[in-house]
Structure formats: C-alpha cells, structure tokens
Amino acid sequence: MSEGEARALLFAGLPGAAADLGLAAEVTAARLKLLAALPAGLRDEAARTAAVFHVDAPGWYREPDRTPYLPVFVDATLTQRVVEARYRRWRAPQEVSRRLRPYGLVLKSGVWYVVAATESGTAATYRVAQVLDAVPAEERFERPRDFDLGAYWAAYLEDFRARRYTGTATVRLSPRGRRRLPDNVAPEVVRAVDATATAVGGDGWVEAVVPTESTAHACGELLRLGADVEVVAPAELRRAMAETVGTLARAYGLPGSA
Prior knowledge:
Structural class: alpha+beta
Mean pLDDT: 84
C-alpha cells in the first residue's frame, strides 16, 4: 500500500471529504486492496455493509463550498510547509495576506477550515473557501508537539458561542412555532426555549428567554416563524419586527398599511 493510500484510509467512509482533499483515487485503491486481503466471507460482509451506509456531510439548503486550495493546505499540513495566502475575512480590511503554518484541517457540517499559526505563533481558524490564493513556500516549520487539534477545536467552538450571543430577548411562541424552531433557529435558541418556557394563557402559547446576536440578526431569524412568534422585549427588537412587517404589508398593498 502506498503512502497516499495509507493516508486515505482515514477518509474511506467519507467519499465526499476524500474528493475534496484530492484523495478520491487513493481511497478507492486502498479500499480495493483491503477488500482483496480479506477472507471471502468477511469480504462479502464488508461489501454488504458498504452498500447500506452513505455519509453526506454538508447541510441542507446551501451549495457546498468551493475549495480549490484545500489540497495545498493538505500537503502543507502533512509536510509542515509554510503557505503564502490571501484571505477574505468579514471585517475591514477584508482582504489580507498571511504566512500560514497549517497545524490541521477540520470538516464542520460540510465546511472545511484550516487551523494555522501566523508568524506570531498564535493559532487561528480560517475558512478554506475564503482563501483567495495559496502558494506553498520553501520555508518549513515545526508543529508544536503539544498542539491538540481536537482540544483546540472544542475550545474554539466554545469561544465562538460565547462571542456570538451578546444579548437576550423575551418571545412568545405558539405550539406550531415551537415545533418549527429546530428547522429555523440555532440549537442554542431551541435549548433556551426548552429551559425557560412558561405557559401564557390556555391556548398552548409559551413565553421564553432566548439568546440573540444582534437586533438585525434576531429580527431576520425570528421572522422565519411568521405569526407563530411575538417579541415581547427588548423594545428595539420588537420595533424592528414591527417595522419589517409593516414594510412587507405595504409592499403587498394590504389595507391599512399605508
């Protein structure tokens, strides 16, 4: 078995991820060699198992990321080679240049991220689809022996959640609105409703306190629930909801909306 085929074994059950990484051929070759080495009975059982399981990592309702520079980061991570990259981020200046030392790659809900350190030595997370250009340099680096990719990613997610939600809102939800929550809001919001919901009236409506990112984001997210949600507080969010609904009413020429 070649070195590339040995590497590819990790992705034997993730054909989409293997293709993203440029390892589709190696995964196929490694799988065929492994199957050929098995006794006939086990080989048949492995084939039956493979026929009834399929992993599709990306979520619904969005196109998969285009990641043309993912193979560059794969090779740079394995060979510990510096990458000269141009990256587009959300804050100004949006386009920045970085000399990255890739420590590892993470596939999260169908989205690839590279965890890399800059010249300062501090590790950060970069979405691979936001890389505008990536060229491997001659310079090599030493990956810290004590760097744990799994532990880093867990800490990164916890920090992201803490930074993401900066406020709260009190909302009322109909029974249908509560059922629709998992398909329209983040899991943290669903958990908050489950933890804080109290009955209001006798028609099944509940009142709950949910975390919010910003007024604009919360308004857009809650409007997905239509008439099955009412914002009680804060006043700024309630006003934003009313203004948006009023604008929609005027757009559709409803009576009394002028």
